[in-house]
Specification:
Layout lengths: L12 H24 L6 H6 L6 H12 L2 H14 L6 H23 L6 H6 L2 H22 L5 H49 L2 H10 L18 H16 L3 H7 L5 H33 L16 H10 L5 H33 L8 H29 L2 H25 L5 H24 L4 H4 L49 H19 L16 H6 L7 H5 L7 H6 L5 H14 L1
Helix pairs in contact: 1-8, 1-14, 3-8, 3-11, 3-12, 3-14, 4-12, 4-14, 5-10, 5-12, 7-14, 7-15, 7-16, 8-9, 8-12, 8-13, 8-14, 8-15, 9-12, 10-16, 10-19, 11-14, 13-14, 14-15, 16-17, 16-19, 17-19
Length: about 600
Amino acid sequence: MVGTGGPVATFSVWDYVVFAGIILLAAGVGLFQAFRGRKEASSEEFLLGGRQMTAVPVAMSLTASFMSGITVIGTPAESYRFGSAFWIFGFAYAIMSAISAELFVPLFYRLGVTSAYEYLELRFSRPIRIIGTSMYIVQTLISYYSVTGLDLWGVLVATGVVCIIYCTLGGLKAVIWTDVLQMVVMLAGFVAVIARGAVLQGGLTKIWEDAGEGGRLQAFDFDPDPLKRHTFWSIVVGGSIMWAAIYAINQSQVQRYISCKTLGHAKMSLYVNMVGLWITVTLAVFSGLTMYSIYKNCDPLSNGDVATPDQLFPYLVMDILADFPGIPGLFVAAAYSGTLSTVSSSINALVAVTVEDFILPVYKDLTQKQVSWMNMGLSVFFGGVCIGMAGVASLMGSVLQAALSIFGMISGPLLGLYLLGMFFRTSNSIGGLVGMIIGLVLTLWVGIGGQIYPPTAEKTNPLPLTTAGCNNTIGQNYTTITPWTSPVTLTPDYRPPLADTWYSLSYVYFSLLGVLTTIVSGLLVSVITGGCKQDKMNSELFVRKNDLTCFSWCNKSKESDITEKPSANICMGADNPGFKEDDVMSKDVEKNTRL
């Protein structure tokens, strides 16, 4: 009987057929885009879709990249165990969208960049650009094997190979259109679970009532305590900065919206993506509430039916949907589609930053054909690395939770560096570098400390669950559709004084800590080292008033957005005596000719 514990069914033939069909359909969409665009083999076509994409597909791609494998299976488990507070991230998504669309999109369009980290060289220095790019590469590889949540070698390799093929042949355009299909599949997976749960429980109203009785609807906690895991303030304030660090400067996201044909389309893609994020988080949270309504009297985790929280949602799927052949296959395809989207966007972004930030500045005489072959070769290389990371993930256990937190720790100081350069004309490269290092040290310190000495239940506030209604013996351990992996945190017997204060800082505040530390310390060091010594600064490297007043209805053409590209960073010349403005001008001419 559903909701009473015990083993559940396994995959049927039709489930495998549906799963394979959806993955092959995704590959077909990518390959279609690849062959349709073969007549244009330029680097700009491969990396940016020829800068001719429109708002809606880009927005759906942005949302799909958010919905990783862990998002599909982790968010419902979060809602099941901790309640609906996660839904408040919807406010953070709105603030993040405005920050990204109104501050960063005009800047990147005005500069005509391919890599988001080109800005760091224009504003500060080339060493800082290389450091920023390196941080992104490390962050991306770490986040990949942290967000997959999957441990089926055969399927991972198969989907990885499919992803490599369409990324290599089709570039960003193939990635975006494949993401559109994958987003639809992922949302369909959530809808299938909610619809079946409503039928079993007697309607959506019953699910809502059960969630209320179980304390799952008490989302708005206005306690200002920064040590509590999720409060209204931590999610809205800290969450906004955390997601801004991902959408505003992360190459995987930046590369999508700068591929739009106009500035207006780029801005609109972020606002449409905001709506997509609202729909996604609402369905994911309600899926968790549906799971609680079904298992309110028999928690599968406490009963030993599953080993980790990340197995809860797959267990639910097989428990309530096994009688409908093919539907469980749809759910697994949804989870793997999230992983596929993550991998494809990572591959394309890694290729872009490697070529633009490391190779082309050194080998300036490469022909367009050589660059195109290099793009495809690097796609294969990074695809192989991602598959290898999936293998490492299945062997590293508790290290994964630390790795996932490190992803957030790196983003904050890097965002602080951008904001330092965009808003404060007195900041120089020395201040920027020192500020970012100090911010990174602090976020790594608090983050790693929190992994070694996890916060107590008083701060994380898990809600009560019971096994009173279970019909099976506690302690049995059954598997579901796949051995989903999840990190297990070991709690040391000894807790130092910092464990219940500094190390208990909510993970949502890590990025905010990094941003503030980088800006404040960067400004202080810049002032101490003389600031920017020039009388005149290039205004195109800073946020302008009309960037804010123009809002999303600006509809400049691509050409008008990037023709007035700054030739040099004046302040960078002060910190680098050997710098010549003509050198940067010649680099811009070479790049525009090549593209």
